[in-house]
Specification:
The complex is a heterodimer. Chain A has a single domain (about 1-295), classed as Orthogonal Bundle (ABC transporter involved in vitamin B12 uptake, BtuC). Chain A is about 75% helix and about 0% strand. Chain A contains 13 helices and no strands. The chains are: A mainly alpha, B mainly alpha.
């Protein structure tokens, strides 16, 4: 029983990483920009966050450092893509390649570092309930904040004027421009938000999820987060569910290894990647379904005529 | 002049001069950032520069090593150029390279002491086939399931790494290898023949240069290559002309997968000589940069592959001579692609000072 409580807890924890990043990417995709640099931003944020915690001992400082790293990188990407009209895919890829190199370079001296001891979290009262307590109520506050954020994002996108404007920029930048909205500024803001959240997710990985720094430790979570927005047909609530589902797949391998399933560990490590491919294929099978749900201007440059 | 600002103005025609100039400018920008980085790290910037751009050129042996590393980069980039020109985003060349190396190793391990030199041919062909199968998976999922090829090809890189890991930690592990995760050293007969004594340069270089000619002819002198590029530039026009987009997708992925697999075979049966977990060296990703910096042109990519190889060697030298981490290579590679994309703006736009005080936007 306790093993399953731990599996649920680990699933929520792993899902939180994917959810934060994927909700961020959702924001910039809603504005029409795909940022393939998620993996690179998360890597740089992971080392920035880890270094900040090593030096200050404060989780919050780590998260702030991660957010800053992600936001700065996304801003550079945004300026290139939005003002210089560079290809979104190529530029995002450049960001990922740069991020992988730069994080490895910057992190060399932190490979052996340990973080200062920090308190563990538990919600008083609820955490003592058998099974449910260890499964649901002993998490880092970020796990609960992520759920709140997803709810807030649904409200923002579908219930506020600003959310409507953001979506209109993604659906038809020409119309939004004609109505007088600063399409480029809005897109940049969305891209920076996406980068900041990817940064937060990256910092969460190195500060809470696996509190250490290893080169390439994000291990494709940025790419899975990108795939998640498609799985979820660009709906925040589905992104959250999908993130927990994939968190579960990631954690299943450790659970299976724990109970001694006789499969080479490499095949278990493959699971989340294979699952991503399979789910992506199943969801994308109906091109109409994707077309209806996808922000119409996604990936396309926009040139405002003066 | 308070309101003077730079404005981008679309050129009526893309500038040819900037087409050539932009990679050079991008390299300059990267070098300048590199100098600043060296200074920030408290290293002599001139020495840093020499390590990256002079040491790899200064002796016959060094030049040989430059060519050895440039070969797989060029071979992979040639295939990627066909892909990118067709607007097919295969970014999983690293995975196709790994599976090519695995397939080539499978054949090489069958060789015995008495096996003749002919074994090299099936080794190389197995590598090509391995890469094609791996890229074919992406093509199949895109074709039949409309799955995004960027994400699928990239996810398959992670899967390929695990396949490689399973084999070298499991069934293919050398029983006499002190439990190291690697296969036995391949028989000498499987070794890709070398061009000269005393240098590690193999006939892989000849294959790469033949590839340059082959891809040039395919892209610019055949109907199939033309159809491929029209599909990339103007899908609607391509449909109207009756070119099959499915055929273009499969061609692009099979060609690039085959080339990446070939590079894997040449590496594993060449300089490496056995299958180890260190076969993936990021060539598949670096080749993306090679392809772009070389303007997706076969001849241009010869130069960019040499440049990228210089970055690899420079990174290793920076580690041994300057005590800097080897990952500096990745930093410079990423910076180069970034600056190139920014500089490419000058191909389609010109910078103009606008000083009219009332002008907006």
């Amino acid at each position: 029983m306790d093993a399953y409580a731990l599996l649920i807890a680990a699933t929520l924890n792993a899902g939180t990483v994917l959810a934060i990043a994927s909700l961020g990417l959702l924001i910039n995709e809603k504005a029409g920009i795909v940022n393939l640099g998620a993996e690179g931003m998360m890597l740089c944020a992971a080392i920035a966050g880890f270094a900040a915690v090593v030096h200050t001992g404060s989780d919050v400082a780590g998260f702030m450092a991660g957010i800053a790293a992600g936001a700065v990188m996304a801003a550079i990407f945004g300026v290139l893509v939005i003002w210089l009209n560079t290809n979104q895919y190529a530029t995002g890829l450049a960001l990922s390649l740069f991020g992988a190199g730069f994080s490895a370079f910057a992190g060399v001296s932190y490979v052996q570092e340990k973080m200062p001891e920090r308190p563990s979290f538990a919600i008083p009262g609820l955490a003592d309930i058998p099974f449910v307590g260890p499964a649901l109520f002993k998490h880092h506050p970020m796990v609960y904040l992520t759920v709140l954020f997803a709810v807030g994002l649904v409200w923002f996108l579908y219930r506020t004027r600003a959310g409507l404007i953001l979506r209109s920029v993604g659906e038809s930048p020409e119309s939004a421009h004609a109505l007088g909205y600063p399409v480029r500024g809005i897109r940049l803001a969305a891209v920076v938000c996406g980068g900041a959240l990817c940064g937060l997710a990256g910092a969460y990985i190195s500060v809470v999820y696996t509190p250490l720094w290893v080169e390439g430790m994000v291990a494709g979570k940025g790419w899975i987060a990108l795939a998640l927005t498609t799985f979820a047909t660009w709906r925040p609530a589905r992104v959250l569910l999908g993130a927990y589902l994939f968190g579960g797949v990631t954690m299943l391998q450790f659970h299976l290894q724990g109970i001694g399933v006789d499969v080479p560990s490499q095949f278990l490590t493959m699971l989340p990647y294979v699952a991503t491919i399979v789910v992506l294929a199943l969801i994308s099978r109906n091109p109409r379904w994707i077309r209806i749900n996808m922000p119409a201007s996604i990936g396309k440059p926009f040139y405002p005529c003066a | 002049m308070a309101n003077a600002r730079l404005k981008l103005e679309a050129r009526p025609q893309p500038s040819k001069a900037w087409g050539y100039g932009s990679p050079v400018l991008a390299l300059l920008v990267t070098v300048v950032i590199g100098l600043v980085l060296f200074m920030a790290l408290g290293k002599d910037p001139v020495r840093g520069l020499l390590v990256f751009f002079w040491e790899p050129l200064k002796s016959g042996y060094a030049l040989g090593e430059l060519v050895v590393k440039a070969t797989p980069l060029l071979v992979i980039a040639l295939g990627l150029a066909v892909c990118f020109r067709s607007n097919v985003w295969n970014i999983g060349a690293e995975g196709q390279y790994i599976i090519g190396a695995v397939a080539a190793s499978g054949v090489a391990l069958l060789a015995e002491k008495t096996t003749g030199g002919w074994i090299v041919v099936p080794v190389v062909l197995a590598g090509i086939a391995g890469g094609m199968v791996w890229a074919g998976l992406t093509a199949f999922l895109r074709d039949k399931f409309n799955a995004n090829e960027i994400l699928v090809s990239l996810m398959l890189v992670y899967v390929a790494v695990q396949v490689l890991g399973y084999l070298v930690y499991g069934p293919w592990k050398d029983p006499l290898g002190y439990n190291f995760p690697q296969t036995k050293t391949f028989e000498a007969a499987t070794r890709i023949p070398r061009l000269f004594d005393g240098s590690r340069v193999s006939i892989g270089v000849v294959l790469a240069l033949l590839g340059v000619v082959g891809v040039w002819i395919f892209l610019f002198r055949t109907r199939a290559g033309f159809a491929q590029q029209v599909g990339g530039l103007a899908p609607a026009a391509s449909r109207y002309a009756g070119f099959s987009s499915r055929k273009a997708l499969w061609t692009a992925l099979l060609v690039s997968g085959g080339m990446a697999g070939l590079a894997g075979a040449l590496e594993v049966a060449g300089p490496i000589g056995q299958l180890t977990p260190y076969v993936p060296a990021g060539y598949g990703f670096a080749a993306i940069i090679v392809a772009y910096v070389g303007r997706l042109h076969p001849v241009g990519m010869v130069f960019s592959a040499l440049l990228m190889s210089m970055f690899y060697i420079g990174g290793e030298l920076a580690q041994s001579r300057l005590g800097l981490p080897k990952s500096l290579t990745g930093v410079f590679q990423g910076l180069l692609l970034f600056s190139l994309l920014a500089c490419d703006t000058l191909v389609n736009y010109r910078l103009k000072w606008v000083s009219s005080p009332g002008a907006k936007k």
